[in-house]
Amino acid sequence: MIILLSAAIAPGLALFSYFYLRNQMATEPRKTLFQTFLYGALLTFPILFLQYVLKEEGIFYSVYFQDVVFTSVVEEFFKWFVLLIAIYNHIEFDDPYDGILYGASVSLGFATVENILYLLSFGLDTAFMRALLPVSSHALFGVVMGYYYGRAKFSQKARTKEMIALALFAPIVLHMLYNAILSFKGYWIYLMVPFMLFLWWFGLRKVKLAHHHLVQHLHMQKKL
């Protein structure tokens, strides 16, 4: 059991440490980040329950719609909503790069609990593949979401609503593409490899841009 839990938790911890250590300009309070992680972890249970109930009730006319559209929308919406109500106006959200950390944190909280439940059901044989795909993809969806939250809070007020909307819709689109690729039975891996390379490129580009906006933000603060 200890080995299984370690295998389930390690990918999320490693990915979060990577994004945390990329922030060399400021140190975000670990307590707030841990709370955000817990929010994401707690989200797992109502989301899985909702998905189970709707599936059992036969609400969905199509398995494809259920797995690709509904799953992507409900998971990213709840993460987006938690960040909006609990973190966006938090005093500790005080620079553009913080969005990256909080987005990654809430997503990895969700992904880690989901990973634990999955490995308990299917065993350690799936641990490596899940670290490469579901856990890392959730982290990158969170990075993209957090980037736009950072832009919303620290860019011109005229663009705030636009950026908050992008914080929701950009991860949903990416998540839907990811789930759509998984639906291609037999040859999904040939589509997933280039998609994951693109997702990492896109996510790391957002990290780089957030760091650039952080430098500008700190420079403006010094002027003031």
From TrEMBL:
It is a multi-pass membrane protein. It comes from Lysinibacillus piscis. The keyword Aminoacyl-tRNA synthetase does not apply. Involved in the degradation of specific anti-sigma factors. This is Protease PrsW. It comes from the Bacteria. Its main location: membrane. The chain crosses the membrane at residues 6-21, 33-54, 69-88, 100-121, 127-150, 162-181, 187-204. Its EC number is 3.4.-.-. One of its GO terms (biological process) is proteolysis. Coiled coil: none annotated. Keywords: Cell membrane, Hydrolase, Membrane, Protease, Transmembrane, Transmembrane helix. One of its GO terms (molecular function) is peptidase activity. The keyword Nucleotide-binding does not apply. Belongs to the protease PrsW family. It is found in: Cell membrane. PANTHER family: PROTEASE PRSW. InterPro entries: Peptidase_PrsW_arch/bac, PrsW.
